[in-house]
Specification:
Layout: E1 5-9, E2 20-24, H1 28-48, H2 55-66, H3 71-75, H4 82-93, H5 98-109, E3 112-115, E4 125-126, H6 135-149
Helix pairs in contact: 1-2, 1-5, 2-4
Amino acid sequence: MSRRTKTVTITVKGRDQGKMFLITEMSADQAERWATKAGGAMIQAAQNNPDSNDAMGLIFTGSVMTGFATEEDIKEQPDINWEKLSKISNLMLMRLPEKQLRPLLDELMDCVQFILNPKHPEAPQKLLSSDIEKAKTYARLRNAVYELHSGFFLVEGL
């Protein structure tokens, strides 16, 4: 089975308007390693700041992402909206210290290619820093990559 892909066209007015990007799903191994690093960082952030309002969210989200939460732990939370947890996990990720966050964000951007010629979307090229002219475009693309990969929250087959 091939990896999932998604084409993103920037529609917001500005220098990147109309630009197209191809997002390709990470391999299962890459995605698992990324989730383990991200989840572990969330757990560590919660342990470093146990009194913060985010501590429990970071611990639970990190536990699910790393696989430390057991089937029983997850089943004990019957009211969890897994789609909402995916969105919350993205927000929790952004609360990590920059030193831990930056490599994780860079790995997400490795999934993005630039479609130089929209008439030939079948020929994307490696993303260069000069392909993106607005900082907000990075956030939009990272969110799209995260959404493509957040299926691990849908707890299939439990």
